[in-house]
Amino acid sequence: MDDAEGPAPGRQQGPAKDAGPVDPGPHTRDLDRPRRAPLHLRAWAVVRDMPAVLWRTVVKSWDDSIVGHSAQAAFWTTLSLAPLLLALMGLIGYVANWFGPDTIGVIHDRIISFGLRVFTPNVVDEIIRPMVDGVLQQGRGDVASVGFILALWAGSSALSSYVDSINMAHDQHTVRNPVFQRLFALLLYVEFLVIAVFTLPLVALGPTFIVKYIPASWHPAVGQLIDFGYLPFVVLMLVGGLALLYRQALPRPLPWYRHLPGAALAALIFLVASTGLRVYLSFIASGRGISYGALATPIAFLLFTFFLGFAVMVGAEFNAALQTRWPAREIRTDQLRDWVVEQIKEVGIPDPGKAASEGLRRATDPIRRRQRPEPAPEQPAPPPRPAAPAPAPRVGPR
Length: 398
Hints:
Elements lengths: L1 H4 L33 H25 L2 H34 L3 H16 L2 H18 L7 H24 L8 H35 L6 H31 L10 H29 L7 H30 L6 H16 L4 H13 L34
């Protein structure tokens, strides 16, 4: 009777004897990992192994021709600056009324002031300021034109060079098709434009809104705090943008936190390089160095963009070196994909991705023409057989 009524309450039943192993699923693989070491031991391991990571970054950067890729990025960045400003200002014109009537003017002033902090005054006055003024005078009507579409394609050339460098740093430059890689850079460029259209007005008008909604007695202290913390805030925004670029550029991305060290290192390298370049250019402008004449300003801007590409590639190489030394666990999408592939293999269904790639390879193979069979080589004729001797005549009566 007890068995018919079921198990007693509170009694835990074990698994059935004939039950097979239970599949843990794609999200429980990390439960079998060993426990992590204490924080102080992990910190000491990072400090101990950091020289080896830095040396690997230097060697890998040199093997990947960092100087050549930085020069390529500088060239395309210089050519893409005007299309970038055209696309950015043209799109901001559609949302400027959401933030206030003088949004474009405030953004213009913020771009010029930030340029003066990063570049030399000659670069700002002769290159950046005329370019921004010329784009603002054209208005937003060019957004719907064919020229704007061409500007998008030209502006994405610089981002395409950065994407190629990041993929090469992580040894993933052969994963994507080259044509798809270029189209992907264009889509990534449009994505960053959309993000910049909404974040740039907020960054430019943020101090004005803060001062507007605080008591008047707080204005002096808050004004000083804004003046002191505005540049670090912009630097943090740039670090976040670089981390987003590092993650989006890779076909097989790393977890988010693994892209932050390289982004911070890239921002630090660019700030130090731009500061040293400003000192060097001021030394040349004083007449104590080589004078480039009318080419001084374009060369200075090219040097700034060269160090920008150099910093971006060093940050990517540093992230790759960290991944090599301390591999990160797979992201959830990769774990789910691997789990699905394992389940397909257990069931016996062929891998659809492998079948699709094999079909694509066969479809793109050169057409094989049917060839006529070659005639077999003529064999020498066999030697003639000797004639049989004639029978002897019969002698005798018939």
